[in-house]
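During the first year of the project, the team set up a workflow for recording each protein of interest as an amino acid sequence followed immediately by a discrete structure-token representation. This format lets reviewers and collaborators read both layers of information side by side without switching files. As required by the reporting guidelines, we include two representative entries from the current panel. The first entry is reproduced here exactly as it appears in our internal archive.
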Amino acid sequence: MAKAYLSLGSNQSPDIHLPQALAELRAQFGEVIASPTYRTPAEGFDGPDFLNAAAIIETGLDIVALDAWLHALEDAHGRRRDVPRFSSRPLDIDIVFYDDMVFRGPGNLQVPRPELRHAFVLKPLADIAPGFRDPASGKTLAELWAAHPQALAPPPVHSPAP
């Protein structure tokens, strides 16, 4: 079994889509460790604020199969792929880490995810896995968060983990 560290986000009915996505992850993978949910502004485009969270799952799926399963989950929540990549969406789930693998695959699949540099990805992951070491830098998530420019003013917590 592999451990996958996921980033979840939504800025279209996020109070509906994020809890439902976590429930679907639990139904498929069993126990899910979930972070608090944070409200953050849209990055790279004008749009409503996002709610962002992180989750850790254990899976028997390889990284490509897990990515496909997560894309199907996004699609089931109304994610459109015929619009610009950086736009509003009901659900976005990315594999940030898959064990300690460094991987570039089909499409936009890359771990560690380059979005780890953003507070909306790093802060929720650091909350639930502070001692996990980023295989690219060798630093723990707690160390990466402590060095992040937004560490002194983290995004506001929207709610406890669903």
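The second entry, processed by the same pipeline in the following quarter, appears below.
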Amino acid sequence: MDYQQIQHPIPPLYDAHSEILILGSFPSVKSREAGFFYGHPQNRFWRVTAAVFADTVPQTTDEKRQFLLRHHIAVWDVIASCEIIGSSDSSIRRVVPNDLSVILEAAQIRRIFVNGGTADKYYQKYQLPRTGVPAVRLPSTSPANAAWSLERLCAAWSVLKSRA
């Protein structure tokens, strides 16, 4: 496989009531195909967040949108475009960051979380200097993060519910 220059194809999801912003790095091939965040069937994002909020795991894109907005969660990614091989975060290069002000000016974001190390790395490099808002790094829900069980992920991600 070769590098591909890819523009982020999924718009951010948020509304005026969003209080939590969860940022990934860049959508996987499966997410790009699905046209929505965390589209790989083995990604545990939906199972983890549903467990944290004691809610039903959303299945369809519409259910996922409703779930996020119902729990005042905005989602997007740190990267607007990059060169990448498939879905490999470790291959990411030539990064252009997303403009988070679109969300931060329209919503009442109180806390920002990043989903995994790659999102954290690029948030620290590109976003923190712009936003001035530190992000909390959560363990990745990606299937590549096999060291973390679903139970451990749910425990770590339970910080989403705290009102701090």
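For the second entry, the following points were noted during internal review. The longest strand covers residues 79-84. Strands lie at 4-7, 20-24, 73-77, 79-84, 93-97, 111-115, 136-138. Both points are flagged for discussion at the upcoming steering committee meeting.
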